[in-house]
UniProtKB/TrEMBL annotation:
Lineage summary: Eukaryota, Metazoa, Ecdysozoa, Arthropoda, Hexapoda
Protein name, UniProt field: Tetraspanin-13
Keywords: Membrane, Signal, Transmembrane, Transmembrane helix
Membrane topology reported for the UniProt record: Multi-pass membrane protein
Cell wall biogenesis/degradation as UniProt keyword: no
Membrane spanning residue stretches: none
Subcellular location: Membrane
This protein's encoding gene: Tspan13
Highest rank taxon of the organism: Eukaryota
Signal peptide residue numbers: 1-24
GO cellular component, as recorded: membrane
InterPro entries hit by this protein: Tetraspanin/Peripherin
Pfam families: Tetraspanin
Length: 162
């Protein structure tokens, strides 16, 4: 590999490491209040069908409470069907209570995987540099042997036996 190409490759690899490491640390540093804030922002942006699927899977209703649709708008899924499935109470709990553990697990998992791969990149680049040094050392030795062989045959000396 050309020296310039190798330098560019290492710079790109370092920038990738920084990005992965930063995101992983951010995921691991997010506290439960921030997780709830992100979850609520996501809840506000997803469509009615997705909310309904979450409510049916986790047997919950609404994000923080069972809000009724305002003025006949149908932005929120109905809690009637889900409430029929809740056997532990007459109405289901808000989804934030059911999702807290799952959200926390997801943040920790993503952070752990990010750290694993960022440090794997550092280890791989170190291994690659070591391997490159060994290969270069071997090439230098071969070139020196070839040079001494060609020089000794030019002046008429017998070849050294290896």
């Amino acid at each position: 590999m050309l020296p310039l190409a190798k330098i560019q490759y290492m710079v790109i690899l370092f920038l990738l490491f920084l990005a992965q490491f930063s995101i992983a640390c951010a995921c691991l540093a997010v506290n439960s209040e921030q997780q709830e804030m992100f979850a609520e922002q996501g809840w506000d942006k997803v469509n009615k069908d997705t909310k309904s699927q979450v409510q049916n899977k986790f047997l919950c209703c609404g994000f923080r409470n069972q809000t009724k649709p305002v003025n006949g708008t149908d932005k929120l899924p109905s809690c009637e069907e889900v409430n029929k499935k809740c056997t532990y109470a007459p109405i289901c709990q808000p989804c934030i209570h059911e999702l807290k553990e799952t959200i926390d697990y997801a943040f920790k998992l993503v952070g752990g995987i990010g750290l694993f791969f960022s440090f794997t990149e550092v280890g791989w680049s170190h291994f690659e540099k070591t391997l490159d040094n060994v290969t270069m050392s071997h090439r230098t030795r071969e070139a020196a042997n070839a040079l001494s062989l060609s020089h000794s045959t030019m002046i008429g000396l017998p070849r050294a036996q290896h």
